[in-house]
Amino acid sequence: MENAADPSESGHLVFVDAYDADTRYRRVWLRGPGWEPLEREEFEPRVRRLFPDIDLDDPRQVHWVDRPGQWPPWHPGEA
């Protein structure tokens, strides 16, 4: 998985790490708290709690390393 050396220097509020098909989570760096593993359903509520006025479609605010807006598949019952 690719990791940014220091996403705090990028100027982004949110930095989404590389897609990994072996997990339902993506590592997400949030300005302030730092890195967190988030799944699709957690992403927007968590980001909006910290940054209520964020534009999730603005690449100046949210950086995706790859596959913007995509999350690995997961089905209920899977670990």
Helix tally equals 1
Spatial strand order of the main sheet: 3-2-1-4
Terminal residue distance: 20 Å
Instruction: Write down how many β-strands occur, each being a DSSP E stretch of 2 or more residues.
Output: 4
Average pLDDT confidence is: 89
Explain this structure.
The structure is a single chain. The mean pLDDT is 89. This protein has a 4-stranded mixed beta sheet, with helices on one face. It has 1 helix and 4 strands. It is globular. With 79 residues, it is an alpha+beta fold.
Write the layout of secondary structure elements.
Elements: E1 14-16, E2 25-30, E3 34-39, H1 40-50, E4 62-64
Parallel strand pairs: 1-4
Antiparallel strand pairs: 1-2, 2-3
Brief synopsis:
This protein has about 80 residues and is an alpha+beta fold. It has one helix at about 40-50, and strands at about 15, 25-30, 35-40, 60-65.
